[in-house]
């Protein structure tokens, strides 16, 4: 293992971890008895911030990249990849939000032999990203391309829809897709049952390396609290040995503690935001109050780390997603099929 610790607790160099041999875990999988190669955390320095967003490189009989970050991070990601591997066999993404999969089309162009694995709901959007781009433009306007880079389509024959429980055989390892909705309907985690490594995407929120505090990620337009809690419990019940978070790196503390902290944070944020809405707070007042609550909950997080977390997933974005989820539930409770009102709380 090698790493360079910076004052804010970030990993300045890619972090390499040697997984425990599969035989030691007693798993009945093809990889049993073989050493699992290293996992490297590649810092994508999203929007210039270290320890914001990661990709994970798995080297072995097949080279696998998990997550790509946005296309705007390609100048950071590509040199790291080229210094380590000549080819990629698979590119896997936990979901198609731009900070996780925005560069997948460009990477597929650079690594033409790579297959691309994604949740079945995400396949058509990677083949034709026009709707993804339109959604981003609706939020970020003229800043969209500067923030996220351009989206490139992928040939449909290279896209592999990953059903729940589907396994990708990679010679010395396998990766299992675990559907984990809540953050988004098309979210999945990626589990190596032999080594015990699980890549959680956004299912367990954000945890900066400088702190154990977890901030949930509850964005518009598909956040669902009940499903998010079920997904956190499903991950816990799998019993992974290590959890890897796209925001950011190897999870701090034990797996049980991290899953419990993620579930508690989901409940805490949702309960507080929904209480503000129930009290009739307007947009500005609700946002101010939730920011104050977040400052209290995250008081143990160093200032620079908290600034990175806020830049990665803002309080305003979380409030917008919780508000939309509450509106959908209210509509369903009333037996009404009308689309709930869209909130504007997505930019702050």
Question: Can you walk me through this structure?
Answer:
- The chain is an alpha/beta fold and 348 residues long.
- It has one domain (15-267): Metallo-beta-lactamase, Chain A, CATH 3.60.15.
- It contains eleven helices and 13 strands.
- The strands form two sheets. It has a seven-stranded mixed beta sheet. Strands 8-9-10-11-12-13 form a six-stranded mixed beta sheet, with no helix packed on it.
- Strand order in the sheet with the most strands: 1-2-3-4-5-6-7
For the record, the count of structural domains works out to 1
As a percent range, the share of strand residues is: 5-15%
From the 3D structure, determine the CATH topology: Metallo-beta-lactamase, Chain A
Coarse morphology: globular
Topology:
Layout: E1 15-17, E2 39-43, E3 54-58, E4 64-66, H1 74-82, E5 90-92, H2 98-101, H3 104-110, E6 115-118, H4 123-127, H5 130-140, H6 144-148, E7 159-161, E8 167-169, E9 174-179, E10 188-192, E11 197-201, H7 225-238, E12 242-245, E13 249-250, H8 255-278, H9 283-297, H10 303-312, H11 315-333
Parallel strand pairs: 4-5, 5-6, 6-7, 11-12
Antiparallel strand pairs: 1-2, 2-3, 3-4, 8-9, 9-10, 10-11, 12-13
Summarize it.
With 348 residues, the chain is α/β, with parallel strands linked by helices.
């Amino acid at each position: 293992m090698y790493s360079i610790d910076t004052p804010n607790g970030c990993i300045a160099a890619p972090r390499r971890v040697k997984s425990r041999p599969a035989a030691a875990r007693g798993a009945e999988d093809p990889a049993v008895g073989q050493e699992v190669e290293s996992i490297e955390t590649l810092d994508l320095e999203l929007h210039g911030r270290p320890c914001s967003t990661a990709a994970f490189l798995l080297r072995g009989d097949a080279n696998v990249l998990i997550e790509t970050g946005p296309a705007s991070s390609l100048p950071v990601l590509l040199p790291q990849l080229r210094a380590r591997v000549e080819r990629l066999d698979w590119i896997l993404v936990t979901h198609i939000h731009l900070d996780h999969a925005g560069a997948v089309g460009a990477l597929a162009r650079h690594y033409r032999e790579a297959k691309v694995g994604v949740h079945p709901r995400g396949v058509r959007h990677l083949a034709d990203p026009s709707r993804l781009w339109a959604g981003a433009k609706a939020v970020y306007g003229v800043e969209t391309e500067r923030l996220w880079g351009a989206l490139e389509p992928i040939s449909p024959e290279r896209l592999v829809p990953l059903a729940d429980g589907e396994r990708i055989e990679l010679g010395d390892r396998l990766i299992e897709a675990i559907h984990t909705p809540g953050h988004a309907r098309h979210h999945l985690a990626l589990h190596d049952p032999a080594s015990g490594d699980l890549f959680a995407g956004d299912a367990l929120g954000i945890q900066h390396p400088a702190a154990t505090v977890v901030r949930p990620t509850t964005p518009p337009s598909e956040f669902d609290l009940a499903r998010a809690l079920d997904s956190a419990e499903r991950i816990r019940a799998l019993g992974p040995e290590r959890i890897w978070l796209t925001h950011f790196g190897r999870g701090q503390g034990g797996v049980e503690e991290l899953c419990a902290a993620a579930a508690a944070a989901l409940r805490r944020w949702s309960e507080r935001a929904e209480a503000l809405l129930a009290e009739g707070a307007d947009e500005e007042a609700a946002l101010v109050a939730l920011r104050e609550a977040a400052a209290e909950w995250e008081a143990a997080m160093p200032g620079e780390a908290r600034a990175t977390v806020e830049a990665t997933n803002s309080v305003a974005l979380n409030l917008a997603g919780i508000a939309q989820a509450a509106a959908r539930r209210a509509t369903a409770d009333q037996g009404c099929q009308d689309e709930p009102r869209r909130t504007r709380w997505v930019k702050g």
